Amino acid sequence: MFDLNQQIAIVTGGAKGIGKGIVATLIQGGATVVIADIDEAAGKQTAAELGATFKTVDVTSQAACKALVDEVIQEHGRLDILCSNTGIFPQASLAEMTEADWDQMHNVNLKGTFFMTQAALAPMKKQGYGRVVITSSITGAITGYPNWSHYGASKAGQLGFMRSAALEYAKDGITINAVMPGNILTEGLADQGQSYLDQMTRAVPVGTLGKPEDIGYAVCFLASKEASFITGQTIIVDGGQILPESPEAIL
User: Fold this and answer.
1) In terms of CB atoms within 10 Å, which of 10, 111, 127, 163 comes out highest?
2) Quick one: signal sequence residues (predicted)?
């Protein structure tokens, strides 16, 4: 079960963090993985480390996303899995947030998801099979966090996009789902400092931050042939983070 051999996958934002964890688990499952990222140095390093290939892409460019998919189709003959994972999360208070701050967040997180998914769906529809898995977040759709209102809006927007897209392609052998990570220990989270990491850890009932591979395992399930009857849905991977009514509920 859940054998991804002979499956061709693209993982955007796969050079680091959660994306790297997704790449590692897809490869563990047998998939052939193309890392697509704007960070060429980190992307090539991760590709060499994990046994993937690397291609540069700017997900805010519709033409670049289509060119990436076309190149993968030309080289491999098909595309079975798209993991739309690219995301940014710069902080900005609502009072001080600029239009440029808002646009940058939505261009990368939301428009990038649209461009990559649109590009991947065309060949998937022709072949009558495909799996799209979007990396969203518990922030926005379920929880909120100060200074990330633009981030939360972009992540909630991904889920609205996913549900309608899933309906459009439900009869084409294509499923479109999302994972919603909680507090995952990535390079970006570590950059916030130890006190922030300690605060984030205290919010997780299981007592630890998640690993990027924890997200990857959920992605592998949704990307499998066996998940054919699941579409337009989300899997929360957060160690129970959204469960407590108050901090006192965490034992």
Assistant:
1) 10
2) none
